[in-house]
Model the fold of this input.
Amino acid sequence: MPRVQAGSITMNYEQQGSGDPLILIPYLAADNGCYAFQVPEYSKHFTCVSVDPRGAGESDRPEGPYSTEMFADDVAALMQAMGIPKAHIYGVSLGAATGLWLASKYPDRVKSLSLHSCWHKSDPYLEIVVSGWQLIAKQLDDMPETVIQGIFPWCFTPGLYAQKPDYVQALSDFVRGRPKQPLDAFMLQSNAAVKHDAAAQLGQIRAPTQITFGRHDLVCSTRFADPLKSGVKQSELHIFEDCSHAALYENVPAFNEVTLAFLRRHAG
Done:
């Protein structure tokens, strides 16, 4: 996969398709492969650039601390290095938090903004959940198993585990097959999530924005919907009624249909 010097670090990315550039930013502990169920559809209409963020995948893992603003600066530097003046910016969870900073700091470089399972500012509930993940990670010292045993249950509904155990197992096997994130890199990334605060940035976002949540999400629940919707001027909101935190896996057809429709409306 290609690697490029992006500011002070070297970043890894995967590119597929043609059309407007679409930058896909992964969530916590994930690399560019996390959008495996979306890129085949999106790439029919867009040039998909799926990145490995600082601390994950094959990108550099320098010493910290990290911040969501820093992740956004990294992506802006990657765009600059690749000669991409403007792109659609897309992220889930930590990737969406990064997108908030990117769209507010570099508004002229963002054509549209997709925020899935996002939050504008960490609250005590989110902080304690992520702190729990950190405790599990330290105990297991194995990030794939931390994701599968500690984080997955917060991402999926009980119904998915009951009705599609083979699918959950396939997702688990996929995680085990990706580049293994070191514990220290996870701690740096997750600390950035805990300290995330882009509340003062929302009014600086000018790009048309899609905001989505899963109805059953507890980590990034719809408690964050009103602040995001009211704070980002050109925004629209969609709730996936049958999903938790990871609608991109729990209802792939619905998620892809809704998100791709938004992206295509703002293409060209």
